[in-house]
Amino acid sequence: MPLTLTTRAVPPVPSGAGGPPGESMTRARIPALMRGARGRCPACGEGRLFPRYLKVAPFCPRCGEELYHHRADDAPPYAVILVVGHIVVPLLVLVEELFQPPLWGHLALWLPLTLALSLVLLPPAKGLLIALQWALRMHGFDPSSAEREPPPEGATRPPLTPAAAPFAS
Ligand SMILES: [Zn+2]
């Protein structure tokens, strides 16, 4: 009886969905944090983390990593309030000491600056936190976690692009 060997392409498994064989249990934190702060997928650094302002994609459109496990909640706004407060308040005091502008001058200066800084800093703060949760395998980002939940209703894993799925045929 002749022996026949068949090969079958095995699609790669995103690391968040159990991880490919041999994947390290530790995830590089610094590169993941840099990717998250840039609004990119912490796993591959290519897919956009936010399809809209602060709206997190359920899956990475590039590598299929499950991103819906994040629990950013109110932490990014807290961090942004802390940072923006430490920028704006000393500047306000300094300007008051040096120039004593009228109240409307303060309002015209600090309200737009506070709003602009907050809006600019929120996406990187949220991306950084999500990347940290991913790197530390917090919540559902750990494939063996009891906290893992099914994808949100209507969210489907995107088809892998040829660059992200070199073994798919
Ligand atoms: Zn990705």
What does this protein look like?
This protein is an all-alpha fold. The chain has a domain at 28-141. Helix content is 40%, strand content 0%. It has three helices and no strands. The protein starts with 28 loop residues before the first helix and ends in a 34-residue tail after the last helix. The relative contact order is 0.21. The chain binds zinc ion. The chain crosses the membrane at residues 78-95, 107-129. Residues 1-25, 143-169 are annotated as: Disordered. Pfam families: DUF983 (PF06170).
Name the helicity range: 25-40%
Based on CA atoms alone, the radius of gyration comes out at 22 Å
The span between the termini is: 30 Å
Total strands: the figure is 0
Q: Uncertain regions: pLDDT < 50 for 5+ in a row?
A: 6-22
Q: Helical region count?
A: 3
Shape assignment:
elongated
Helix and strand run: HHH
What's the main sheet like? Answer: none
Biased composition (Low complexity): 155-169
Pfam family, one: DUF983
Transmembrane segments: 78-95, 107-129
Keywords: Membrane, Transmembrane, Transmembrane helix
